[in-house]
Amino acid sequence: MSDAFRIAIVGSGPAGLSAAGRAAELGLSHVLLEKTDHLSDTIYKYQKGKHVMATPVQLALRSPLDFDAGKREKVLGTWDEQTAKHGVNVMHHADVKAITGAKGDFTLKLTDGREVKAETVILAIGTQGNPNLMRCPIEDGAVVQYTLDDPAEYNDEHITVVGGGDAGIENALGLAAEVAQGNVVSLCNRSAEFSTAKGPNVAALLGARDAGRMQVLTESTPAKVEKGWITFDTRDGELKIRCDRVIARMGSAPPRAFVEACCAEFEEKEDPRNPGKMMRGVKAGTGVQFTSNDRLAYPVLSPTFESTVPGIFVIGALAGYPLIKHCMNQGYDVVEFINGNTALKPADEPILEKKFAGLPKGRDVAEWLELLRTNIGILQGLSPLQMREFMLDSDVRMYRPGEVIFVRGAREDSLFAIAEGSVLVEINPQDPSITVPIGTGEIFGEVGLISGRTRGATIRAAEKSIIVEISRLAALRLQRQVPSAQKEITRISIERQLLQLFKAGLTKEDVAEVVAGAEVRTVKAGEAVITEGEQGSDVFVIRSGSMIVEKTVGGKPVFLSYVPAGSFVGEMALIDGGLRTATVKAAIKADVIRLPGEAFARLMASKPALEQRVRQDMEARRIVNSFVEERKHSFSGAVDLYSQTAKFLIDEGIGEATDVLLIDENLCVGCDNCEKACADSHDGLSRLDREAGKTYAHLHVPTSCRHCEHPHCMADCPPNAIHRGPDGEVFIDDTCIGCGNCQRNCPYGVIRMDKVPPKKPSLLSWLFLGLGPGPGEPSHEWSVENSKGEKPKKAIKCDMCSGIEGGPACVRACPTGAAIRVSPDEFLTVARLEA
């Protein structure tokens, strides 16, 4: 015998509980199937004492069950009490192993042999049972685990948490709290941003780091786990630290095998992992289908949560919605839909209505979402439900013909996608009439997103166009959640970078073969992509970061040049044949695009203008090589000194700088005019310290901002007070709250926290009326007040004298020309030896 119900709900997490509660309220025959002896196993497995957040705060909650931010134990207690109060029919120890049948007559088979009959099925099973695993070598005896129950169980251990999402951050905070005594905790995140974590969690993490309770490693990935140790690949090279235990919280994937098999037809097919062996697999076009073949893809769902199997609905994390409030709303909504209330609008409808308010009338929210999803290539892997969440973090607007979207040289890192219409890319700064069109469905702005370089062209709307602007964090999150989007962005970025870099009248059809064989590779600081004396014909394009070129002279490596993002190397061996003539290695952690040599050679053969362009760059490098070879005996000491000086500058962060202040100690007379001019331009507070910083030979790098390509100070600024100006300057606006995150994140010590002095009177007022302090000095009252030790209020750093006519005051005030501001590619060249 088997029981029969109107609705069978599989999984008692927030989505399943809410669905069951609504079914009970409506008096619908239902059963909530939970494989454990308790409700909401996912929340139950949260670490003890964990604070559960109720975000997004602007989203209204629809559910018979209450949910407010609070401790895990309180949330679970409330749900247990209210589930019983509403009379929810719960069946514990009910582990579903298969679902067969069709709409109106489903059979759910349990592992203990029981069967449940239902007219409709709601899958609310989540993804936590299928965690992403560590991909680096793990030595026998090393401890790696993927869950954490009670942080208080671990004491006096060196523990590394891998993963910068909410789960990883919360685990790390718990292990570093007083309740877990004596732990030395480190958290590793593969990117600079914590794009998948909630703001309060990130703030708490950085606060714990600043208080010295834990170490936070960004732009780092585990390379090897040994008993008692873990090794990371970081942006600055390899790092090895003590580690007794690794807790890996790197997300999870849908339980695809079970879901796909629901109501599917099966057939014998070859096992892709074991050619020649047959396996029983799901027949194509049957069962619950997913948006793609990627492991992280989600099921294809209708706007009412129905899967490709009529009568089977999917909600919660399995539908791509990880937030509890979203899940609970879906549980309520899906039961309403099943009960015939198809007119119900989602809870986020008012928020999205405001997003689309400026677009042409005639479409509702669902229609706009579907238009954006189907028209834009990188969004096609999102389900309609994921599109709603995606648009909460993105903006969309209509542009008029000729309206500028962004200008050449702007420092911006958002991504744009064209839903309707087209844009024109002005590829020639001297002649705006020379343009290249980009049409509906395509993206632009990807170079700024990936490399951090300035916008390479001005882009205008060619016609009335509807364009989505995707913030950097939203774009990063999209690429993590939708592998197909990441692949498409990578492909397009490679294609565009080649067209922009080589120009020569190339089209995307011309470079198709090269793009198809291209590979993006991440290299750590000091790692070589080309080694002198080796065979090889591949060409490398620097996608982000920077490279240095070295040549062995007299048995020593001699620095030849600095190569920034947006350049290419490796063409000499391709054109001339023979061995590599120099070594090219990463100055900092960098991404490079490897272009297959044979395909690139065929492209050059078919495009003489391209070959001429490449040969021009090659000739410039050949001149440098010849220069060093011819003069290596006459000034070998100078070559060695220059090479060591260049290495010193790279070590001091010049490899990621866009503008740096250098002082020639042979010319500096110590007058301090540079500091005084800086102070006088900034209300009496100098942004540089001439004597501080390091010196090699005659070259001194004072403590003044480098204006990095990817500024570390921007990584976590709560009020978003740090910006890039039109000339590339990184500056802090008046919204700074004095949290100090930028100061702590800057690896070069060029930001300080200070109380901002009052505005100074004019120079004439001081000169003739004696008002205010003198040039280069803050007011006496402020100096006395600030000496009392009051908490600093604002972050102070160089802004390249933005808005001040004549440019940086430090350079203008230097009487001997000792102070110069340069970009690395202007300064780091062997041609300086000729001076």
UniProtKB/TrEMBL annotation:
PANTHER family: DIMETHYLSULFOXIDE REDUCTASE CHAIN B, OXIDOREDUCTASE
Record's keyword annotation contains 4Fe-4S: yes
Record keywords, A-Z: 4Fe-4S, Electron transport, Iron, Iron-sulfur, Metal-binding, Transport
Domain 4Fe-4S ferredoxin-type: 659-691, 728-756, 792-825
Protein's UniProt name: Putative oxidoreductase
One GO molecular-function entry: 4 iron, 4 sulfur cluster binding
Organism: Sphingomonas changbaiensis NBRC 104936
Domain Cyclic nucleotide-binding: 378-478, 502-621
Pfam entry (one): Pyr_redox_3
Domain of life: Bacteria
